[in-house]
Write a structure and sequence with these properties.
The chain is of the alpha+beta class and 271 residues long. Helix content is 18%, strand content 32%. Helix 2 (13-26) runs parallel beside helix 5 (93-103).
Amino acid sequence: MISEIISKKYMDLDEICIKRKSSFDSAKPFPYIFFDDFFNNHYLDKILNDFPDMSKNREAYEFKTKTDKKIISASQSFLSDQIINFFNFLNSHKFLTFLQKLSGVETYLIPDPYLSGGGLHETKNGGFLKVHSDFRLHPSLGLDRRINVLIFLNKNWKEEWGGHLELWNKDMSKCETKILPIFNRMVIFKTSDYTYHGHPDALNCPNTESRKSIALYYYSNGRPDSEINKDNFHHRTLFQKRKNSVDDFRREKVEFKKIFGKFYIRKKTTY
């Protein structure tokens, strides 16, 4: 089965780890790597052919906020057997061992069978995902999120359409890396409260196109304290303002201010 999924040049996963681990560890602004044509093109063509139009599916979830405008497969019930089998491989012992050796995560990696926040992602013209670090804990299992794997499915994607995966440094003063989301490109990176990434500018692709990807997240029981922002009390996604940008993630809330007796005035504030 693995020979049908992974391309010939990457079949020896142990050798790939030995050759590429130093590149992963030394990458800036945080440990990451990407592989082109990691998967068998014919196999990935089948995955792309089965990729549903999620804007027409009631079981998909669409985000329309200041921070993200995209659609994700909130349920696996409408996905094809081909796609589910691919998820099973990406959550298999073989692939988990590869990620463990490549990343150097010190405890066993655990896949997410629920695909919380993961699965299929689609962004259409005008969509975006602002720069952020990911939620730290799995929402139901309480495990620590350690590794992201993103697999892009976009054939003939043009540079001017945007949608690059951007990796930003810790003080948000500089985008260190931009990765074009082309077909059969897989990105692997460590996640912490300081691994800031996103595709923050609105897509400029034709309405007939969309930015398609597969997102898988991997967890462990515990993590180093150095990866934790103590101010992130709720372990939530932390959106960040880019230097010299007009990004604004303040949320509006309504406050009632007492003026005298039983009379109040209604006041909107942001925070």
